[in-house]
Amino acid sequence: MQTIWLSGAEWFAVLRIGLGLWWLESWRHKDKKSWFAGGGITWAAGIAADHRWPVIRKSFDRFVRPHPRLMAYLVAYAELALGLGLIVGFLTPIALAAGAVLNLIYLALMIHDWAEQGQNLMMLLISLTALLAMSWQSWSVDGVWGLFL
Q1: How many helices (H) and strands (E) does the chain have?
Q2: Domains identified in the chain, total number
């Protein structure tokens, strides 16, 4: 593939790193004190309670509501792990797939909010593109260690 300035694999690495920075910003901008005290899960519970799809309400009530503190930590540190993993390219295919799943969950929960839909759809598209392009081939720990060839 001919490109200007970088190789095709390097451009996909730029895309992967950019997505990692986006996940890192998702983690960084959270008010951790409020989030871990239950603020984030309480906010999500209100959205799930009024959701137009019954499966979202039921799933939230079954998996998230019984464990609000655990889920708050899981969400926040999943975003941190995704960001760091994608930036350095460590376990990249796993991080890209997990990020896509998290974006699908966010998308389903926030289906009524166009701004959230746009962000999550873009992140999902980048995840799938970076995964299918094997973006760990350049500038990654996976590439240095020969993982996922």
Answers
A1: 8, 0
A2: 1
